[in-house]
Design a protein that fits this description.
Blueprint lengths: L2 H15 L6 H15 L5 H12 L5 H44 L3 H29 L3 H16 L4 H29 L1
């Protein structure tokens, strides 16, 4: 068992977990910095694929990503080390807030700090959306599918799971079945 690698996984995901404000999408730049640039555990394209996989299964995107990458690097024990690293900062913050909640809930300074954090998170989520879009939308069909998904999300009450499943089904049809049908048609000619 490589304890140095397990410690490295824990610390890397602890650093990422320190910035869980805004959820998984806001954390994408932190994942890229640690996983892609600092340690080289995945390429940028692999990171986007891992992120897509992590959001397609139940659970928290950031934690799912940490578990997947930890398992990839060091097996089940690596997954546990990465998950513990990702969870630890939130646990520490939540316990601290719980202890001091009554004293800070109406503190003007704390309220203003969180207003600034929320604004910064909007920027991080927007940057993540642009990065994912630039690396994922490679043709007209992908752009149309993304716009349709955005429209459904913004203007209907359709659950996100249906949008994801629909996108997966349409992607399978367009990128897998259609080329097979075309190839079969060419063979029959």
């Amino acid at each position: 068992m490589d304890f140095a690698l397990l410690w490295q996984l824990f610390i890397a995901f602890f650093r990422i977990g320190l910035f869980t404000f805004g959820g998984g999408y806001a954390m994408l730049p932190f994942f890229e910095k640690e996983v892609v640039e600092r340690f080289g555990w995945a390429s940028r394209d692999e990171m986007i694929d891992i992120y897509a996989l992590a959001q397609s299964v139940p659970g928290v995107i950031a934690l799912n990503t940490a578990i997947f990458l930890g398992n990839r690097k060091a097996g089940p024990i690596g997954a546990i080390a990465a998950a513990c690293g990702m969870i630890a900062p939130s646990l520490i913050v939540i316990i601290t807030i719980a202890v001091f909640f009554l004293q800070i809930q109406s503190n003007l300074i704390v309220l203003r700090i969180f207003s600034g954090i929320r604004a910064a998170v909007v920027g991080l989520v927007a940057a993540a959306a642009v990065k994912i879009g630039l690396s994922s939308l490679r043709d007209g069909f992908g752009v149309m599918l993304a716009l349709a998904a955005m429209g459904l999300s913004l203007f209907t009450d359709l659950h996100a799971a249906w949008v994801i499943l629909g996108g997966g089904g349409l992607g399978f049809g367009f990128y897998v079945l259609l080329p097979l049908l075309r190839a079969q048609g060419e063979v029959n000619e």
